[in-house]
Amino acid sequence: MTETKLLPTSSAFVETSKTRHSEVFHAYRHSEATTAVPSGLATLDARAISAWFGDHKVLDRVSLTMEAGKITALIGPSGCGKSTFLRILNRMHEMIPSASLAGEVLLDGHDIYDQGRRITDARRDVGMVFQKPNPFPAMSIYDNVVAGLKLSGQRASKGDRDVIVETSLTKAGLWKEVRDRLRQPGGGLSGGQQQRLCIARSIAIRPRVLLMDEPCSALDPTSTRVIEETMLELAHEVTIVIVTHNMQQAQRVSENCAFFLAAQGQPGGIVEHGKTEAMFGNPVDSRTADYVHGRFG
Ligand SMILES: Nc1ncnc2c1ncn2[C@@H]1O[C@H](COP(=O)(O)OP(=O)(O)OP(=O)(O)O)[C@@H](O)[C@H]1O
After folding, report:
1. What biological-process GO terms show up in the record (predicted)?
2. CB-neighbour burial class of residue 178 (10 A; exposed 0-12, middle 13-18, buried 19+)
3. What is the CB neighbour count within 10 angstroms for residue 207?
4. How far apart are CA 219 and CA 13, in angstroms?
5. Measured in angstroms, how far is the CA atom of residue 220 from the centroid of ligand 1?
6. How far is residue 11's CA from residue 95's CA, in Å, rounded to a whole number?
7. Cβ pair 252, 228 in contact under 8 A
């Protein structure tokens, strides 16, 4: 069966999204900072995803359902396409000039690649936290949190922004540490705090899915533990997908797990997926068993 490649559409990235977020601020106002009511948990469904860089095919027809309100871990050796798959889930892959893809990514049944859908909407609905904390270093902690609102064209009053900053920092587990220095630069925080600031920035725009690409790989064990606790709390209100090389982390935080693998010279795919407990305790495929028990990769 032939696959229809979607052409790179990076020029569409500059399109602006008009504000339609009064309901977001309303939701913030009417929810306790630490006990927000879930606002429509979303399932993300990737169907037959293939990906290329130029002519080099790096993913072959990968399908995976990432359940609403759960943490799904993507594991597998280096180079098997986990990060590429993650970037496809929020339309970042197409920003790379040589990149193309085939397949569908359904957010609650609606394809984020539909021609009628704006790329900025996909990015707002599906946020991303990267391996290396990337706050705007000279910008204040406060402005870092609201930066996503501005970038996605959402307007908010000073009062709205104050609420969003406190709520987002609280959810990211950082409020108590920074509430007295909100006007100081984000770059002055420790690595772990910077990563939590990036999480706060991502959740400030109320994404329905949060993608995390090895979010703790640059952090010490204590900061890692704090981020993991933050993830577990956030999972009540946002669907989370995390790429991790840390098998203990996958077991600590995720409910579901997918094992990616690429044979020599072949595109990557999913060997096995399911409940994390089963994947680690009683994997079906011997390659999964070998990987989760550290026999390769
Ligand atoms: N920008 C790019 N241009 C060309 N090839 C790329 C690019 N990014 C990734 N690749 C290739 O795509 C394949 C999958 O890479 P990807 O980073 O998705 O794997 P990964 O499983 O996330 O690896 P790691 O665990 O090391 O981050 C690799 O062969 C890689 O070299």
Report:
1. phosphate ion transmembrane transport
2. buried
3. 20
4. 31
5. 25
6. 8
7. yes
Cβ of residue 263 lying under 6 Å from some atom of ligand 1: no
Q: Spell out the CATH class of 40-135+207-292.
A: alpha beta
pLDDT digit string, tens, across residues 152-186: 778 889 999 999 999 999 999 999 999 999 999 99
pTM of the model: 0.87
Q: Which ranges in the chain belong to alpha helices (H)?
A: 22-29, 82-88, 119-125, 141-151, 158-171, 175-178, 191-203, 221-234, 247-253, 276-281, 286-292
Four-point Cα dihedral 21, 22, 26, 28, nearest 10 = 30
Residues 127, 183 contacting (CB under 8 angstroms): no
Q: How far apart are CA 171 and CA 206, in angstroms?
A: 11
d(Cα 145, Cα 179) in Å, to the nearest integer?
Answer: 12
Instruction: Choose among 251, 176, 239: nearest CA to 46.
Output: 239
Q: What are the Cα distances from residue 288, in Å, to 24, 72, 269?
A: 42, 16, 13
Ligand 1 mean position to 79 CA, how many Å? 5
Closest C-alpha to 58, from 98, 91, 109: 98
Report the atom number in ligand 1 closest to the C-alpha of 80: 21
How many Å apart are CA 143 and CA 162, to the nearest integer?
10
